[in-house]
Amino acid sequence: MSGEEAPCLEEELSTLAIENVEEYFELDSCLKWCEENDFKNVALQFPDHLLAYSTRVYNTLSTTTTQTHILADTNYGSCCVDEVAAQRLSTQAIIHFGHSCNSRVLSLPTLFIFGKEPIDVNNMVDCFKQTYTQSDNVLVVFDPVYYHAGTLFKHELRCYPNICITKYSREQNTSNSSDDSTVDMSADEEYAIFYVGAESLALTNCILNNGSRKVWSYDPTTMECRQESKRVNKMLIKRFSNIEKIKSCKIIGILIGTLGIKNFREVIDRMKRVIKAADKKFYIVSIGKPNLQNLPTLPRLAPRDGGMP
Q1: Is residue 274 a contact partner of residue 268, using CB atoms and an 8 Å limit?
Q2: CA torsion angle 296 302 307 309 (round to 10)
Q3: How far from 260 is each of 80, 84, 106, 250, CA to CA, in Å?
Q4: What digits encode the pLDDT tens for the residues 227-260?
Q5: pTM, rounded to two decimals
């Protein structure tokens, strides 16, 4: 872990306090899912900041009929299901806890438990009303950890007929599986975006994927609402800065953080074509979690001047 990552993790661990573990991790739903699908060997994947609760979850889910394993490996992105690590244990299924990008898993049956982070729905509704009129078309995108508040949020705004909330799949590769995250609005339709969650990579992707559409965000931790732009979003500013740096690079590293996501080979192939078209060289490297300590072991990709775009 790099020096920059350590304080962030310590801060996250120190501020996260879960009073009701059974409710937050939906342990009854986990047990029911294992029983209904007759899973005897199940892997449990936690992000770093929830590992402190992994033992309590393990003890609850380990029954006389089901054996569970805690995945100790740290992925580059804990939002992705680590199917490779789970298969090493010959597990039949995996339960993924915490924030998820909801990417398609290759083949392993997967249950997503996003968690239930606290959120003041009344304050969120007030901010929404101050931002939009009843005639506005609005797509509401919840960070998965706040997705549990979606039903109450929509009920409180029932006088707004043109609200659509993104849907997340809770299961994959089972008989009850649903499709990927779905949106009920047409791509050609005019609508605004209301994102619920803190500034993060997920918010950055939401902004980039929606082009010219106006994106407003509501941060439940600060109860602040703002219109997103590259002038106020620090991660977006850093992204554009790195794009300019990459333009001058002659060698580009394609770092693979996970091999368990569907279509990852197609994504790599497209990256290779784009880089070749720009007349640049590339190296493909599989690293669980790249940082300034392990990247210097790759001489041609070693960071210079203390940083790498």
Answers
A1: no
A2: -130
A3: 8, 6, 6, 29
A4: 998 777 888 888 888 888 888 888 888 887 777 7
A5: 0.80
